[in-house]
Amino acid sequence: MTEQLQTADIDLIQRIIPHRYPFLLVDRLVDIDGTKSATGIKNVTFNEPHFQGHFPGAPIMPGVTIIEAMAQTAAIMVGVAEGLADKDFLVYFMAIEKAKFRRKVVPGDVLKMHVTTKRGGGKVWKFEGRAEVDGEVACDAEFTAMLDMPKE
To answer: Which stretches does DSSP call E strand in the chain?
Structure first.
């Protein structure tokens, strides 16, 4: 029997991570497989504040913002799997490695962030992330984060 993969809508996302506009960079998660893997979805729109200056006349989503979206996807995945909705749950970057940018991300794109846990459990976790638009890789990176889990 195949296990049903979980999803997270914007309401659940906001109950797990503290990020809000303009820095909440994930609209939905699908295919959440416990703390193993998940896919985040971001609908890239022209009215996002970074497009005012990056770059006028040629809006491109900043690479660091794409990596942040992958990290938020990872945090939400862990939050769903560990039942951290409505808890004081924070995540801090510790390292970003092997980041490569392969394609521009522009308004109108649907960015899909595929994250996989390389090492997890406890406070320090390591993830692999790949962001795609229409099946074409826009960015890939590995990142390490410290999860500040709520006290029971």
So the answer is: 6-8, 28-33, 37-43, 90-101, 110-119, 124-133, 136-148
pLDDT digits (tens, 9 = 90+) for 69-80: 999 999 999 999
For the entire predicted model, the pTM comes to 0.96
19 is catalytic: no
pLDDT at 121: 85
Strands 90-101 and 37-43: unpaired
DSSP 3-state assignment of 2?
coil
pLDDT of residue 4: 82
Q: Could you tell me if 29 and 8 are in contact, meaning their C-beta atoms sit under 8 angstroms apart?
A: yes
Structural domains in the chain plus CATH codes: 6-148 (3.10.129.10)
What is the Cα–Cα distance from 146 to 74, expressed in whole angstroms? Answer: 12
Helix (H, G, I), strand (E, B) or coil at 101: strand
Listed residue (42, 37, 152, 49) closest to 108, CA to CA: 42
Of 19, 50, 54, 114, which residue is the catalytic one?
A: 54
